[in-house]
Amino acid sequence: MPRHWLLKTEPGCYSIQDLSQEKDQTTSWTGVRNYQARNFIRDSMAPGDLVLFYHSVTDPSAVGVARVVREASPDPTAWDPEDRHYDPKSPPEKPQWYAVDVQLERIFPRPVPLGAMRAVPGLAGMELLRRGSRLSVMPVSEEEFALVCAMGEGGDS
After folding, report:
1. Which domain holds residue 136?
2. Counting Cβ atoms within 10 Å, is residue 154 exposed (0-12), middle (13-18) or buried (19+)?
3. How would you classify residue 78: left for phi > 0, otherwise alpha for psi between -120 and 50, otherwise beta?
4. Full-model pTM
5. Cα separation of 19 and 24, whole Å?
6. Within-domain flag for 145
7. Residues near 94 by Cβ (< 8 Å), separated by ≥ 6?
8. Domains contained in the chain, number
């Protein structure tokens, strides 16, 4: 049974439109530098898991769905001194940071704004909606995933 996740990204850095332009509409989800988010990637995410793609900062909204297509592997951006996610404390022989590959499933016809999610009682327990929650990778229940998808597809919550 696939698990469900939410991945946050700043659309100015990497958007769902960027993902749609990638070869095979697939990318490696690199650059995560929070230990709890890293643990979700490394220990829990698996091929077949479904992902809500979430644009943060400007007009925060769930904008589509992706699928995990490759299990966690060491994040090579941690080893590249030219990359902004470089971490000299994460050598290749003992990596601290991990990434998964995700592939675009669909872009929602209607983005689902954070405010709209807050108004849905069935989403009240969603990690994204908790005050102070800043994780860029977080689990989402099957029910929460279905509600957000229905909203993005234009249905009522």
Report:
1. 4-152
2. exposed
3. alpha
4. 0.93
5. 9
6. yes
7. none
8. 1
Find tokens 């800043």 and name the residue. Answer: 134
In a domain, 72, yes or no: yes
Q: What is the DSSP string of the chain?
A: ---EEEEEE-TTTS-HHHHHHSGGGEEEE-----HHHHHIIIII--TT-EEEEEE-SSS-EEEEEEEEEEEEEE-GGGG-TTSTT--TTS-TTS---EEEEEEEEEEEEEEEEHHHHHT-GGGTT-GGGSTT---SEEEE-HHHHHHHHHHHTT---
pLDDT in tens, the chain (157 residues): 779 999 999 999 999 999 999 999 999 999 999 999 999 999 999 999 999 999 998 889 999 999 999 999 999 999 999 999 999 999 999 999 999 999 999 999 999 999 999 999 999 999 999 988 889 999 999 999 999 999 999 865 4
* Residue recorded with tokens 């592997």: 73
